[in-house]
Structure formats: C-alpha cells, structure tokens
Amino acid sequence: MEFISKTPIDGRGYRGNEIKEWLQNWKGENVESFIIIDDDNDMKPFGSRLIQTSWMKGIQEKHIKKAIKMLGEKVEWKAL
Predict the structure, then answer these.
(1) Can you give the chain as a three-state secondary structure string?
(2) Cα–Cα separations (whole angstroms), residue 7 to 3, 18, 43, 44, 48
(3) Residue 63: CB partners within 8 Å, gap ≥ 6?
C-alpha cells in the first residue's frame, strides 16, 4: 500500500476538523468521494462519512461492504 498523505494532528478538538483542514489544503487530484474508517466517532462535520469500527474487532467484512458502497457515492464535502 502506498501512502500519499496524512491528516494533521492538532489535538484541539474533533478529528473531523483535522480531516477538513486536510481536504482544504490538498493540492492533488480533486476529491470526489471519501470515507473515514476509525474506531472513534469525533468526526464532526463528517459523521455521515464515518465507518466506525471496534478497537477490539478491527475492520470486518460488513465495514468493507459499506466502504465500497459509500465510495461509489460522490460527495460534495465542502457542503458538509
């Protein structure tokens, strides 16, 4: 797997704010869709894009199916 970037970590509030900052500063190709896979739920304002896992069980098949479906949906993230 190749990583092309990572979100900033500022610890000042919701993780969603760090994701928003990343989206606003991204200089690569347009982001047409995205998902957040995490075992935490502090993703405001992107809670609708969250696939919440369990720290005990990790990513399960149901999460993968949901991720595939969600990635097929275009999202206007600036409106979130």
Answers:
(1) CCCCCCCCCCCCCCHHHHHHHHHHHCCCCCCCCCCEEECCCCCCCCHHHEEECECCCECCHHHHHHHHHHHCCCCCHHHC
(2) 11, 6, 13, 15, 18
(3) 37, 51, 53
pLDDT in single tens digits along all 80 residues of the chain = 577 888 877 777 778 888 888 888 888 888 888 899 999 888 888 889 999 999 999 999 999 999 999 988 777 666 55
Alpha-carbon distance of 29 to 31, in angstroms, equals 6
- What pTM does this model have? 0.76
